[in-house]
Amino acid sequence: xxxxxxxxxxxxxxxxxxxxxxxxxxxxxxxxxxxxxxxxxxxxxxxxxxxxxxxxxxxxxxxxxxxxxxxxxxxxxxxxxxxxxxxxxxxxxxxxxxxxxxxxxxxxxxxxxxxxxxxxxxxxxxxxxxxxxxxxxxxxxxxxxxxxxxxxxxxxxxxxxxxxxxxxxxxxxxxxxxxxxxxxxxx
Amino acid sequence: xxxxxxxxxxxxxxxxxxxxxxxxxxxxxxxxxxxxxxxxxxxxxxxxxxxxxxxxxxxxxxxxxxxxxxxxxxxxxxxxxxxxxxxxxxxxxxxxxxxxxxxxxxxxxxxxxxxxxxxxxxxxxxxxxxxxxxxxxxxxxxxxxxxxxxxxxxxxxxxxxxxxxxxxxxxxxxxxxxxxxxxxxxxxxxxxxxxxxxxxxxxxxxxxxxxxxxxxxxxxxxxxxxxxxxxxxxxxxxxxxxxxxxxxxxxxxxxxxxxxxxxxxxxxxxxxxxxxxxxxxxxxxxxxxxxx
Lengths: 187, 292
Fold this sequence. Notes:
Oligomer: heterodimer
Radius of gyration of chain B: 19 Å
Strand content of chain B: 5-15%
Shape of chain A: globular
Radius of gyration of chain A: 19 Å
Largest sheet of chain B: 4 strands, parallel
Shape of chain B: globular
């Protein structure tokens, strides 16, 4: 990003501006994002407050954001971005905060299961190239010990031909695991 | 012209009736869709939530494979896959350096010029015009067309339909005799990927959607996304629990509804795979009376 930044270079808002070209300073707190957010009531900080916290460039508030439940509760429905009069790409900011929160081991304890679900999902893709739904659910159950969840769905899913116990494997699985090694699993 | 198909993982598993009905509908109009060879998962929500580069690379490999296979167009029925692949194509076309980097990660040449179509665009482009002549049994029901999130957002990138009050699905349904209702939840979120980790949230969000549609008289909900379908259909017990009601209104993929109208049998369209049975009452076909 060229030009003069209005942000402190080491602040979270500054990093986001540098890496994503998304500027938190544009937010004038109209609250449309929080009003339209389908999961705002489940969050510790609704989207407009996330933006406000970034604007302060206060390390204490930034730490709270990285440890928040909000960033994991966000379903990336893109409603906030769609309605933002300043066209601030909030979902992109959420992705950024999630990635950073994970890297720095700051995932909110309440969000552990959501992260376990994402990890189980990606492990399945890493091993087979595609998502094996049976593999995903089995893996998720093992990770969360929620063994009984949704077992009532199994008989009817089987009867409807919706469960496949043998995962579809793509041919070039080596390529997929290479992609994972170069990205998510990069040391 | 070779039209490619990227079904994605849901359409090979829990939403296989979507895949079945997309192909059946295409075949009824003499179109053969060819699957992208050796395609992988797009990474979905999980990838973009955890790692940006991964979320670019997985879709880029799919697009590169389609390019390699000589496909000029790629139909992507799953709204989430459609969104991911379109966003990646857009992001990489904005940034040559990033494009080069991703091309190195996937170890494949990547151009980024394939035309991506969602299922409604596919219908508009190849089916809609020929539809009236093929109708065997009009789908003459009151329907709520539910678009969800990822088919219409982010509008700046997808540039499809109107972001708050889309109409394309309504138009396609009207073409087969349906009465598409005005309602408030066309583009609200069903809870999407929280289906497993926060089923309660899905019950609540999908509950509001179902309730509004049913209160306004919908006899069927029409969708174009496997997540929307499984949340409104498979999660119906959670919806009914959240609403303290017993809603039995069925949810159909648009390809199933159009397929029924052109006389494709329900089994080929995979209607028996739904959790909420599709028992639509037979309605008299209203013949056009000459008004004097």
